[in-house]
């Protein structure tokens, strides 16, 4: 039986993205920042964020995964699509859908730091601090959420549910 429960509505997400975008617009106006999204989950957030910021930005994506078909991080980060844009001396903002154990984002931030950007910050829409394994500083955060597996707004469970407009909790019974 499919059990899906809305945790954060489309409307609330929209309001929060608009709020974050206004702050980022102030911060990055005239800096021509490079926004780096982590595939696949961040693509919806990235699309809404840059349009709401409304200033010139460049974007690139990296694909990192540690979950496979499971709901628990394996702890090992697999690199799929690599970064194509040189970042030395650039103002870089990493755009992440959700920070869970923190392992993915720590891996990426360490990798990017070695390439010596002018600045390196993190914007995450959702945070599950109760599950953190390593400490990661989130410079711009949307929502803190409880320890539950969530889908929708680009987030999936085994490639399902990315299309949902709300952020939802999906129960284990889903087949
Ligand atoms: P971390 O390395 O454990 O922080 O996991 C980060 C990545 O795991 C995110 O970019 C998501 O792709 C995925 N992830 C973590 N929690 C969830 C969730 O509740 N639903 C869907 N994907 C998640």
Describe the protein's architecture and organization.
The structure is a single chain. This protein has 175 residues and is an alpha/beta fold. The chain has a single domain, classed as Rossmann fold, CATH 3.40.50.2020. The chain is built from three helices and nine strands. It has helices at residues 10-28, 43-53, 103-113, and strands spanning 4-8, 34-39, 58-65, 78-79, 91-99, 119-127, 140-144, 150-151, 167-170. The strands form two sheets. The protein has a six-stranded mixed sheet with strand order 4-3-2-5-6-7, sandwiched between helices. The longest helix has 19 residues, at 10-28. It is globular, with a radius of gyration of 16 Å. Residues 38, 41, 66-67, 73, 96-105, 149-151, 155 line the site of inosinic acid (IMP).
Tell me how many strands there are.
Answer: 9
Q: Into how many domains do the coordinates divide?
A: 1
Summarize the amount of helix as a percent range: 10-25%
CATH class identity: Alpha Beta
Radius of gyration: 16 Å
CATH topology: Rossmann fold
What is the name of the CATH architecture? Answer: 3-Layer(aba) Sandwich
Structure, briefly:
The chain is an alpha/beta fold and 175 residues long. It contains three helices and nine strands. The longest helix has 19 residues.
Task: Name the features.
Rossmann fold; three-stranded antiparallel β-sheet; 9 strands; 175 residues; six-stranded mixed β-sheet; binds inosinic acid; alpha/beta
What secondary-structure arrangement, pairings included, does this model have?
Layout: E1 4-8, H1 10-28, E2 34-39, H2 43-53, E3 58-65, E4 78-79, E5 91-99, H3 103-113, E6 119-127, E7 140-144, E8 150-151, E9 167-170
Parallel strand pairs: 2-3, 2-5, 5-6, 6-7
Antiparallel strand pairs: 1-9, 3-4, 8-9
Helix pairs in contact: 1-2
Bound molecules: inosinic acid.
Inosinic acid binds next to strand 5, helix 3 and strand 8.
